[in-house]
Amino acid sequence: MHVYLFTLPVAMAKLKLYYDLMSQPSRAVYIFLKVNNIPFEAIQIAIRNGEHRKPTYTKITLFQQVPVIDDDGFILTESVAILQYICMKYKLAEHWYPLATPETHARVQEYLNWQHANIRFHGTMLFRILFRLPQETKQPVNKAEAEDCRERNKAVVRHLDQYFLKDKNFLCGREISIADLLAVCELMQLHVVDEVNIVHQNDRVREWFSRVKDRLGSAFDAGHKIVYKVHDLYKSTLKSEIARL
């Protein structure tokens, strides 16, 4: 009599993503998971309601920020680290986070380091000046600060054009990478406050933006559904209300 021993396959724990789609880095990770068909449990953390400060979330991350992933007990913060981890853990296409070619890898790393004090900082500041501060303080927009910030964002777009893109289809080479994904999510923050013309005025950056959006497909719109709604609300109501302050 033969006895056959076998074990049933153990289901892999689904990746958990803690996110808020008003957060640029959250959108990048959310879109990336969808584009690459990686199953995940989406757990929304509404920053506007202070959910990131609740004790239950603080147990997950002391930083009280989004995005955060929990991959079967492995907790990771910071969008750049999360995207890099996903690329390597799930063995995604090399173009997303190039490792084999030192020069291309270095270009992606260059952008990832450059972005924080440039595209992210200045885009967030314009959003804050035109949207958040007037709502929080009930004070009118500081027009001088807003115009100065617009000029800084225009400079960022010029740098994308003249340094990163030049004659390439994407920021760091011939193929899309996580640098392009992070960049478009940052620039979409300008769309919320009806300032995306800063991007559209530059032909090469406008074409690149459209190219990246096409490559991301339906995941792009899924990740920006809240941005579209807030933009429509801002343009139809909030912009005029803020102007009357």
UniProtKB/TrEMBL annotation:
This is Glutathione S-transferase theta-1. It comes from Magallana gigas. Belongs to the GST superfamily. GO terms for cellular component: cytoplasm. Its main location: cytoplasm. GO terms for molecular function: glutathione transferase activity. GO terms for biological process: glutathione metabolic process. The keyword Membrane does not apply. Keywords: Cytoplasm. It is found in: Cytoplasm. Residues 13-94 form the GST N-terminal domain. PROSITE patterns: GST_CTER (PS50405), GST_NTER (PS50404). It comes from the Eukaryota. Residues 101-233 form the GST C-terminal domain.
